[in-house]
Write a structure and sequence with these properties.
The complex is a heterodimer of chains A (251) and B (427).
Chain A (H helix, E strand, L loop, with lengths): L1 E10 L5 E10 L4 E5 L6 H9 L4 E10 L2 E2 L5 H7 L1 E4 L6 E5 H15 L7 H14 L4 H5 L1 E2 L5 H15 L3 E5 L7 H14 L5 E5 L3 H6 L4 E6 L2 E6 L2 H9 L1 H8 L1
Chain B lengths: L1 H14 L11 H14 L15 H4 L22 E6 L2 E2 L8 E2 L2 E5 H4 L13 H5 L7 H9 L4 E5 L7 E6 L6 E10 L4 E8 L4 E10 L4 E8 L6 E10 L4 E9 L3 E10 L5 E11 L4 E10 L5 E11 L3 E10 L7 E10 L5 E10 L5 E9 L3 H9 L4 H17 L5 H19 L1
Helix pairs in contact in B: 1-2, 2-6, 7-8, 8-9
Classes of the chains: A alpha/beta (251), B alpha/beta (427).
Protein name (chain A): Putative ATP-dependent transporter SufC
Organism (chain A): Pseudogemmobacter humi
InterPro entries (chain A): AAA+_ATPase, ABC_transporter-like_ATP-bd, ABC_transporter-like_CS, FeS-cluster_ATPase_SufC, P-loop_NTPase
Chain lengths: 251, 427
């Protein structure tokens, strides 16, 4: 599914290297978690994969089902099946949530050569999916993320994911700013989307999210590289002992 | 006085070929306007009120040529309306509907002006005259003096449909001066629509007098005539509990100066003026010059101007709120914003407040900004192509101005036109 090889990335504007040779392979249907201390490059990895400006890839590749992602525009990556749930979902005053989602869904369908959804069809699907995420009609009508609480923003991200049905989902600290109940709700939303053809890359600081979204593989990232890979037990080790011991062992 | 002399010389050259009507009831206001105009002369760029917009092309003796605009689907086509067509400033009877509408008297200035007495005597040139203080508006006085036609509309009830002024521009060198008067009687309601290319060059005045409790809505589109050079004036006076809402969508054109002069004369009046501008190219200059006077108590005024500028286009906003002594509990709001889609475009803004009452709420703001890159990326990351994402953000930016259109069907038509324009930009 997703294969990252020797990825090196620096900031475009300054001479700051952030990723120093990331290697990662996520197979179809797998859930991988990336943990790591602040500043290790986790969010940068997610932004670079999604195609945000401001980063320069100096070496390496990232492919989705064999297609080179790094050469595509962000919207092409989305149409190819990549989805990034933002750590800080963006507020867009003046653009209705519903308009936004319908435009996005239909743009992707169009890019893939599929028929666009009519307003009626779209409404039916979104109502159903919004309900399971406890997103009410009022929230759908409001401008994108404007005036949403932290939890509402994250639920809205998961709703977008559910509507767009990507095959590779990256969740960037989706647990940040969530209380216990909201985390459960968001996790249930994610788990409902798990299937054999869909993979997840879950970036988090805390083991707690991984209690809800159970990973197959856990990676530890530090100083721009994956330094250790293991099973779910690795996350528990981080939670108990912190990163210091782990990193000392690697270095 | 060399400057004044030069302005007066320019005036003499400009009006040399124009005919001053000296028959009928308009003779007196026309002569008075000419006297005002002669005392002022024509404006020049050195005048404070024209510092951002060079009036030379509007005051030149010779009419600049402008390519005629091919026939097109007019704005407001889906709206049921009474159509009145002016082609190159000349009334087009064949293309117009009968000037008959329940609760509304509609006459032409050119014909009604020949009468000896007329209800419009108390209005024609009157609001324009009041609007000359404290800022001189010679082009408005010139209009009153030399207007060749226009509509005189008196509204006594609730008009069942809007009157739509449809302008057509077919002659390359046409130079139009049109003057409309609207009197909305107490408790009456009326909507005026304006669309189309008027002439190669034009100067319009719309004087609107709204009596107590009357409502006046005005929605206008200016677009597609790429060589447009014009100055328009809306003078409105509101009595107690009167309401005026005016919205203009401007695209294309070379020089478009829209002046709005509002006077909240009675208590509890509401006046909203708004503009949405799509400017493209270095030849584009659009100027909104607004003056709102609060004389009554507890009145509310809003100015909402949004300009999207790209490829070297220039947008100008000069907006003023004057709160007179005794105009307590005034609620004045003014916002002017530009969205600059590249580094070549310009937005020049001069917001002003002048307040002589001590219990008022007035706010004003002016911003210039680029597209929000984070929002753009967010939309793209969801699969929305960049050009489409930009269109969504442009519409979002203009939304506050569009929200000033009360009628949903009309607002929908304006939105549709904007979407078409943005769609064309996406390709």
């Amino acid at each position: 599914m997703l294969e990252i090889k020797n990825l090196h990335v620096k900031l475009e504007e300054e001479d700051k290297v952030i990723l120093r040779g990331v290697d990662l392979k996520v197979n179809a249907g797998e859930v991988h978690a990336i943990m790591g201390p602040n500043g290790s490059g986790k969010s940068t990895l997610s932004y670079v994969l999604a195609g945000r400006d401001g980063y320069e890839v100096t070496d390496g590749s990232a492919t989705l089902d064999g297609e080179e992602l790094l050469e595509m525009e962000p919207e092409e990556r989305a149409a190819a099946g990549l989805f990034l749930a933002f750590q800080y979902p963006v507020e867009i005053p003046g653009v209705g949530n519903m308009t936004f989602l319908r435009t996005a869904v239909n743009a992707q369908r169009k890019a893939r050569g599929e028929e666009e959804l009519s307003a009626g069809e779209f409404l039916k699907i979104i109502r159903e999916k919004a309900k399971t995420l406890k997103i009410d009609a009022e929230m759908l009508k409001r401008p994108v993320n404007v005036g949403f609480s932290g939890g509402e923003k994250k639920r809205n991200e998961i709703l977008q994911m559910a509507m767009l049905e990507p095959k590779m989902c990256i969740l960037d600290e989706t647990d940040s700013g969530l209380d216990v109940d909201a985390m459960k709700l968001v996790s249930d939303g994610v788990n409902a989307l798990r299937d054999a053809g869909r993979s997840f890359l879950v970036i988090t600081h805390y083991q707690r999210l991984l209690d809800h979204i159970k990973p197959d593989v856990v990676h530890i990232m530090a100083a721009g590289r994956i330094v250790k890979t293991g099973g779910p037990e690795l996350a528990i080790e981080v939670e108990t002992n912190g990163y210091a011991d782990l990193l000392a062992g690697v270095q | 006085m060399a400057v004044l002399q030069a302005k007066q010389d320019a005036l003499a050259a400009r009006i040399a070929g124009l005919n001053l009507e000296h028959k009928g009831w308009t003779a007196e206001p026309r002569a008075a306007a000419l006297a005002r105009l002669t005392a002022m002369g024509l404006p020049v760029k050195r005048d404070e009120y024209w510092r951002y917009t060079d009036p030379a092309v509007l005051t030149a003796a010779a009419t600049p040529a402008a390519a005629p605009v091919p026939a097109q689907t007019p704005a407001f086509a889906p709206i049921e309306r009474l159509k009145v067509v002016f082609t190159d400033g000349v009334f087009d009877a064949a293309a117009s509907d009968d000037l008959a509408l329940a609760g509304v008297e509609i006459e032409r200035l050119a014909t009604a002006g020949a009468k000896d007495i007329h209800w419009a005597q108390g209005l024609y040139g009157q609001l324009e005259t009041r609007g000359q203080v404290p800022v001189e508006r010679p082009l408005a006085a010139m209009n009153t003096a030399f207007a060749t036609d226009g509509l005189l509309i008196r509204v006594t009830g609730r008009a069942e449909k809007p009157v739509a002024l449809i302008y057509r521009h077919e002659s390359e060198g046409s130079d139009a001066i049109l003057h409309h008067c609207v009197k909305v009687e107490s408790g009456a309601e009326f909507t005026l629509l304006e669309s189309g290319a008027v002439a190669a060059r034009y100067n319009t005045v719309l004087e609107v007098d709204v009596a107590a409790g009357g409502h006046f809505h005005h929605i206008r589109t200016q677009g597609r005539d790429h060589d447009r050079r014009c100055v328009t004036h809306l003078f409105a006076r509101l009595e107690e509990e009167a309401l005026v809402k005016s919205f203009t969508l401007t695209a294309s054109g070379r020089l478009t100066r829209n002046e709005v002069i509002l006077e909240l004369n009675g208590d509890d009046g509401v006046a909203h003026v708004a503009g949405a501008v799509m400017g493209e190219g270095a030849a584009f200059l659009q100027d909104d010059t607004i003056f709102v006077t609060h004389a009554g108590e507890r009145c509310e005024s809003r100015q909402v101007y949004k300009k999207v500028l790209r490829n070297g286009a220039t947008g100008v906003f000069q907006g003023k709120i004057l709160v007179k002594q005794g105009a307590q509990k005034t609620d004045g709001y003014q916002i002017s914003q530009s969205l600059l889609l590249d580094e070549d475009s310009n937005f020049l803004a001069k917001p002003e407040l002048e307040i002589y009452a001590d219990d008022v709420k007035c706010s004003h703001g002016s911003t210039s900004g680029a597209i929000d890159e984070t929002a753009l990326f967010y939309l793209q990351s969801r699969g929305v192509p960049k050009a489409k994402a930009q269109s969504l953000l442009v519409l979002a930016f203009l939304a506050e101005a569009l929200a000033e259109i009360e009628d949903e069907a009309i607002a929908g038509d304006i939105l549709h036109r904007l979407e078409l324009m943005l769609g064309a930009m996406e390709d």
